[in-house]
Amino acid sequence: MSTSFTPLFPGMLLDAAARFAQDNETTKDFAGTDPVREMGWTCTLVPEEAGGVGGTLSDLASIVVGLATHGVHLPVIETCAVAPLLLQAANADTSARWLEAVCEGSAKIAPLTSLSASLDEVALTAKQLDIGYALTGEVKGVDVSLAATHHLVPALLQGSGETALFLVDHEHMPAPGATYRTMEGRRSADFRLDGLTVPAVACIARGAAVDSAIGQADNAALLLTAADTVAALATLIEQTVKHLQERRQFGVALASFQVLRHRTADMYVRYLCAKGLLMHAFQEHERGAADLRRTLRLMKVALAETARLCAEGAIQMHGGMGVSEEVLATRMAQRLLASEFRYGDRMAHASRLLYSPTEAAAADAAACGMSHVARSSS
Fold first, then answer.
1. Which of 40, 114, 118, 314 could form an SS bridge with 344, CB 3.0 to 4.6 Å?
2. Higher per-residue pLDDT: 1 or 156
């Protein structure tokens, strides 16, 4: 029983990320450190004229895959993709200034967005005042794995209904209402803003520019989450095959049982299909396909089903060891199950595919208990 897994995004970035992840495979909390910025990964998507690397989403995917292969959790997607892409909604001078600060390390910017919702589901509202704006609402499940000096906060402007983007100092933010660990072990928190007053200069962009930036950031988040899923799936299968070859029952290796061989083969075929979907989606993104959003939604639905089936199968084939977090395969299974709910679960994306934009927005709002304002970018 053997399998073959070629690197999804080979190169030096993948090798560096994999080495870092291997050295920190047992690290559960990076509090007090900032490996994402120390490794220079925050500069990956930043244009060269702003002091960055000018890399592509495939370059950032190499880092995501390297970490996922060894089960390390770091907010690379949020810090290195979502934040820089949202910043580009601001005017050229403002965007360049803050992107340079990000690359220099003088600013640590993180999005104040939910891990479990699409970025276009804006949870906050902003009321314009004489002295600035008042932000109100609740954002649940924000990644707080690493310290931040500033937060990018999307909000809907009362009256006009436009989407605005605010850059808020961390010192001005209220303390989170609750902090906890997610299924896969990420540190998260819920933030409630009750009329948080920010100066007018905190609004760095509004209108179509923000909507466009949110759409690009959401696409990037879906793609990179898919890369994480496929990489974790490969490791899960490798660990499962290794377990079946080493574990013995009735005097023979578990790998000799035909039913287990068939189940592993099914997992491997599903992995190959998932890999094909991922690479196709990246190609569609690179060529700027008009129906990219539909492709990403279909990929999300398909990968979520594959991830859940493979995760459950691996846990069953590991037996009692499958519920121990000391086992890498178990941590991979947790990662795969959690990935289904990152940036919208499969049911939310399926609803966007099945209904018109107006109907999908209403369905999303009902599913979220009216806690989000759904804005379809289909």
1. 118
2. 156
